[in-house]
Amino acid sequence: MMRAQHMAVQSNYSTVLISEFLLICFPNYQSWQHWLSVPLSLLFFLAMGANTTLLIVIWLEASLHEPMYYLLSLLSLLDIVLCLTVIPKVLAIFWFDLRPISFSACFLQMFIMNSFLTMESCTFMVMAYDRYVAICHPLRYPSIITGQFVVRAAIFIMARNVLLTMPIPILSSQLRYCVRIIKNCICTNMSVSKLSCDDITLNQLYQFVIGWTLLGSDLILIVLSYSFILKVVLKIKGEGAVAKALSTCGSHFILILFFSTVLLVLVITNLARERIPPDVPILLNILHHLIPPALNPIVYGVRTKEIKQGIQKLLRRL
User: Fold this and answer.
1) Beta bridge partners of residue 23, listed in sequence order
2) What is the pLDDT of residues 205-230, one digit of tens each?
3) Distance CA 171, CA 200 (A)
4) CA atoms within 13 A on the CB side of 254
5) What global pTM score does this model have?
6) 218 CB neighbour count, 10 Å cutoff
7) Torsion sign, CA atoms 258, 77, 171, 179
8) Per-residue pLDDT reduced to its tens digit, 34-78
9) Is 140 helix (H, G, I), strand (E, B) or coil?
10) Strand 20-23 vs strand 181-182: parallel, antiparallel, or unpaired?
């Protein structure tokens, strides 16, 4: 009889708790959340405005209807989705204290963050290959990097990352939860799964293996691409040719640097949690969904002549 009562209580308890979670942003510094919302909201509007402008310019300007700019458009779309998935909820918590998030919404957010983050990494890898072909095999570039190549690359980017990251939220959603307070601003897998009463070893192991496999393989291929590019560039003897070749890759390299640096700092702070205040990884997690999306279109806009001209034409039309 005691066993039956225990199971009934456990069933009722888990049913009530998993209906929604509570997001507690910066548990130790809640008094200054309103001040933090100011720079975050400015970065959010900058990211949304800059990426939207870039998409419009590429769409309207016929000279930008090329594979490289199609890939840049894909990157902007990924950034917009990531921002909209994370930041509005964070600002709603800061401004209106709207901490509850439904069970389904939490795991949907987790899925989008995991899949779109790896899609962005994969897009950088395809863009690195585009630059490799452009510089190392310029005569073959028009026949290799075509519109059809971009379509196939986009399908590969979406299929690979959606299929391989989908088990992460599925595994988390199958757990029984004893606590509903998430000490984070967003539904990351580790923040949520550690609230479970069940063993989360499989969940942690799968995320670790898939995360490092996807992001690690992309980074290795990016480094290889730029190694070959650098090797070819150093052999170029024409006056100004080296500077011109490096300039075509400069914007792309800066974007990868932003993306990788923020991600690397986030990983290091999570590994050194005992020495670093718990609010630091939370803030870095939010910034990782804001800084690269805000800077990506700006860097390309500043360093790419064709995009600058397209923006100028758009402003004249307005």
Assistant:
1) 182
2) 999 899 889 998 998 999 899 889 88
3) 9
4) 18
5) 0.88
6) 22
7) positive
8) 788 899 999 999 999 999 999 999 999 988 999 989 999 999 999
9) coil
10) parallel
Q: How many CB atoms lie within 10 A of CB 282?
A: 23
Residue 100, strand partner residues: 22
Q: What is the Cα Rg of the chain in Å?
A: 22
Q: In what order do the strands lie in the sheet with 181-182?
A: 100-102, 20-23, 181-182
Task: Say which residue, 139 or 258, is predicted with more confidence.
Answer: 139
d(C-alpha 304, C-alpha 317), whole Å: 20
When mean pLDDT is compared across 14-18, 89-93, 272-276, the lowest value belongs to 14-18
Burial class of 127 by CB neighbour count within 10 A (0 to 12, 13 to 18, 19+) = buried
Q: Residues with Cβ < 8 Å from 203, sequence gap 6 or more?
A: 168, 171, 172, 175, 189, 193
Cα–Cα distances in Å, from 278 out to 191, 203, 206, 273, 283?
11, 22, 24, 7, 9
At residue 278, φ and ψ (nearest 5 deg) are -60, -20
Cβ neighbours for 296, distance < 8 A, ≥ 6 positions apart: 50, 51, 75, 76, 79, 255, 258
SS3 260: helix
18-93+101-317: which CATH architecture? Up-down Bundle (1.20)
**Residue 113 and residue 188 in contact, taking contact as beta carbons nearer than 8 Å:** yes
> Within the chain, where are the H helices?
2-17, 33-60, 67-96, 103-136, 141-144, 147-165, 167-173, 189-193, 201-235, 241-271, 279-288, 291-303, 305-317
Q: For residue 66, which phi and psi values (nearest 5 degrees)?
A: -130, 160
Candidates 114, 80, 260, 130; CA nearest to 186 is: 114
